[in-house]
Specification:
- By secondary structure, the chain is an alpha/beta fold.
- The protein has 2 domains: 115 residues, no CATH class; 178 residues, 3-Layer(aba) Sandwich (Uracil-DNA Glycosylase, subunit E).
- It is built from 14 helices and 11 strands.
- Strands 6-8-7-9-11-10 form a 6-stranded mixed β-sheet, sandwiched between helices.
- A hairpin with a 2-residue loop joins strand 10 and strand 11.
- The protein is elongated, with a radius of gyration of 26 Å.
């Protein structure tokens, strides 16, 4: 394409021309000039390089509307990242590719996303440090009988899902919710267009109790400080509890049959009780209720993003159904 570059710059005398592989843009203040230029460009590509302009990819638009090019939106006096590019960067950035992505951000107005990236990386480091602290803590119950299942997902997730304890498959893979219940959780997340990697998933007790028994009170108490730190680091807007043990950790007097799908505001966070996916696998009715409760999550998250006033308005509109007053409980995060 070097021959094409020379043709555009020197033969056509185009001053504002940008190309990457076989994509290019030409900027000019005169629309008619660009219309006259187009047949010449097409002829050169066809006759000299045996290439054709794709009719669906030839776009003539005003610069003030922004030109979508290489992941940027080029505007008259500045460039910004495309929304999809922002999402992709926030999803994929890690310690290995951090500098590459920061380099991309240097070429556009990206202060806000840069701060989000640095915040995410800082949280990831803090979570890794906390995990190592747990691995070194010899006082934790179930040590030596099961693997540590710390948790996974976005370090800066706006929602965290918390179960009671790992099961057989989780113990084997050292990952939360990867068995049949985990597959259902993935399906429920996909149903509201939330990729699994966009949220954070963990348990109260981080090791599997023998024979998948219920976690004991002393086990919950022992792992409690680490869960509290996890929540403080991630700082989610919604804490979605999976099952009665997780719900009662935050809401000791609540009953899952009455409290599921009803958010409770505590310290500007929403505690949102849900049935455990394993329970939904055993009951068609519970599955239906769990699916309905999941459908409320996006609106609930948008409300919390909007701040106290929007949450207050939702509370008034939906009365006691979605955001009832929080019952008394001890400090948990």
């Amino acid at each position: 394409m070097n021959e094409f570059d020379q043709f555009v710059k020197h033969k056509l005398n185009v001053k504002h021309y940008f190309r990457y592989t076989d994509d290019f843009i030409i900027l000019h203040q005169n629309e008619n000039y660009l219309k006259v230029l187009l047949p010449e460009v097409a002829e050169f590509l066809r006759e000299r390089l045996k290439l054709n302009l794709h009719p669906n990819k030839v776009i003539l638009k005003k610069l003030r509307q922004g030109v979508d090019f290489l992941g940027y939106v080029v505007l008259p006096y500045h460039r910004v990242l495309r929304t999809k590019t922002k999402r992709r960067i926030l999803k994929k950035v890690n310690a290995k590719n951090l500098q590459s992505y920061l380099g991309i951000l240097k070429h556009c107005n990206a202060f806000e996303i840069k701060q989000k990236i640095l915040n995410k990386m800082s949280k990831a480091e803090e979570l890794e440090k906390l995990k190592k602290e747990m691995e070194a803590d010899k006082s934790l119950p179930l040590l030596g009988t099961a693997n540590l299942v710390f948790g996974e997902g976005r370090p800066d997730a706006e929602i965290i899902f918390i179960g009671e304890a790992p099961g057989f498959h989780e113990d084997k893979l050292s990952r939360p919710f990867v068995g049949q219940a985990g597959k259902l959780l993935d399906k429920l997340l996909a149903g509201i267009k939330w990729p699994r990697e966009s949220v954070y998933i963990t348990n109260i007790v981080k090791r599997r109790p023998p024979e998948n028994r219920d976690p004991l009170p002393e086990e919950i108490e022992a792992y409690k400080p680490y869960l509290k730190k996890q929540i403080q680091i991630i700082d989610p807007k919604i804490i979605a509890t999976l099952g009665r043990f997780s719900m009662n950790y935050f809401l000791p007097s609540a009953k899952i049959s009455l409290g599921h799908g009803k958010g409770v505001i505590i310290k500007s966070k929403i505690i949102y009780p849900l049935y455990h996916p394993a329970a939904a696998l055993r009951s068609t009715q519970v599955l239906k209720e769990l699916e309905n409760d999941f459908k409320k999550l996006p609106a609930l998250l948008d409300a919390n993003r909007g701040g106290p006033e929007l949450l207050k308005s939702i509370e008034n509109v939906k009365a006691e159904e979605t955001i009832p007053k929080a019952p008394a409980q001890s400090s948990l995060f």
